[in-house]
Amino acid sequence: MLNCIVQEKKLTTANKRVAVFFTGGTIAMRSLPDQGVVPVDLVNELSQSIHKNIPNLQLELVHWGDLPSPHISPEHMLELSSEVAEIAKRDDICGVVVSHGTDCMEETAFLLDVTLKLDKPVVVTGAMRSFDEEGYDGFRNLIMAIKACLLPLPKECGVAVLMADKLYSAREVTKVHSMSINSFDSPGTGAIGVCVGDCIALTRIPVASPTLEVEKIKAKVELIALAPGMDGKFIACARESGADGIVIEALGAGNIPISALSEVEKTLKANVPIVLTSRCIEGGVWPVYGYRGGAATMEKQGIILGGSLSAQKARILLMLALSNDLKLNQLKEIFHYYIR
Fold it and tell me: Between these two residues, 52 and 150, which has the higher pLDDT value?
């Protein structure tokens, strides 16, 4: 285990200020009669709880929004990245916590990881239970995310996600359960740190991701999941409607049903980049199979292998890369970082 453990009695908050961005999500929701769980303004209640648990801590509160994460677009994510970068430049800020809904947390965390080039920690967190629900997990997640900033996390960790007493790399993490408190995991790699009581311990340093400076999301990228027997009509529709790129969630190690192959080939000939990902939660895409539609064959035809990236993260990366007008060889070079 890495020697990077913080204990309450050793934790110092002197001259340290942590910025906390509240973007919305279940962590800032209540259940209302005849309506269900909905967003409410809980910034004051949450900040009071933080001060009770970490006395003398200076907080910079940013009420960025009250958006359920399915309402957050890549444009929102990039705007958030820009604001996080701006506040992190300040000498008095030692780290940034982003409170976020869990449904799309992995996409936002990954975009932040790709677009931020900081020497200070950024930790994304949220909650699986609403504020008034028994066993509300938001308080502890926020407090431990702040403590991760106070360590501080090594810059090599990149952007991290903290949920249910585990710390994950934004590159690797995914939501694996729709309702459980233990809803996040990094299949195949595991957490990079754990919370035990009031302590945080790093267990490994993740592989760093390449960064991209992106000013504006300009590219339209579609994501299409293929299943046995599907034809290529959705691929054709994406190409003909002006998609700048397409991510395909394929089978196994990145293999495409023969019934969809002709439209994939037409799309590649039309110079629309396609990134190939796998529906498997571990293993990723590998150029193993040389039959028609196999990843090895498709790579020779110009398809980009998405490596270990999930389809949703590959879409974010392709969108950012195309927004920087990168060409096919440059796209392949960036995605090559994720082959493991």
Answer: 150
Residue 13, annotated ligand binder?
no
Is 26 in the active site? yes
Element (H, E) at 162: strand 160-163
- CA-CA-CA-CA torsion sign (20, 22, 26, 28): positive
CA 83-56-29 angle, 5° bins: 55
- Let me know the angle formed at the C-alpha of 194 by 27 and 125, rounded to the nearest 5 degrees: 20
- List the end-to-end C-alpha distance of the chain, in Å, as a whole number: 23
Name the band, by pLDDT with cuts 50, 70 and 90, for residue 181.
very high
- Eight-state DSSP code of residue 251: B
Question: Could you give the C-alpha distances from 337 to 209, 304, 309, in angstroms and in order?
Answer: 7, 12, 10
Is 132 annotated to bind ligand?
Answer: no
Q: Look up residue 271 and give its two tokens.
A: 């110079």
C-alpha span between 165 and 4 (Å, rounded): 16
Q: Is 297 annotated as a binding residue?
A: no
Compute φ and ψ for 292, nearest 5 degrees: -60, 125
The pair of three-digit structure tokens given for residue 186, joined into one six-digit string: 């990094």
Dihedral angle, C-alpha 259, 264, 266, 270, nearest 10 °: 170
Annotated catalytic residue, options 26, 115, 189, 267: 26
3-state secondary structure of 137: coil
Tokens of 57: 């801590």
272-283 residue pLDDT tens: 999 999 999 999
Question: Which residues are CB-contacts of 285 (< 8 A; sequence separation ≥ 6)?
Answer: 250, 253, 254, 276, 277, 278, 295, 305, 306, 307, 308, 339
Q: Which domains does the chain have, with CATH numbers?
A: 5-202 (3.40.50.1170), 221-336 (3.40.50.40)
40, 138 contact by CB (below 8 A): no
CA distance 55 to 270: 60
In this predicted structure, the answer to whether residue 240 has a pLDDT above a threshold of 80 is: yes
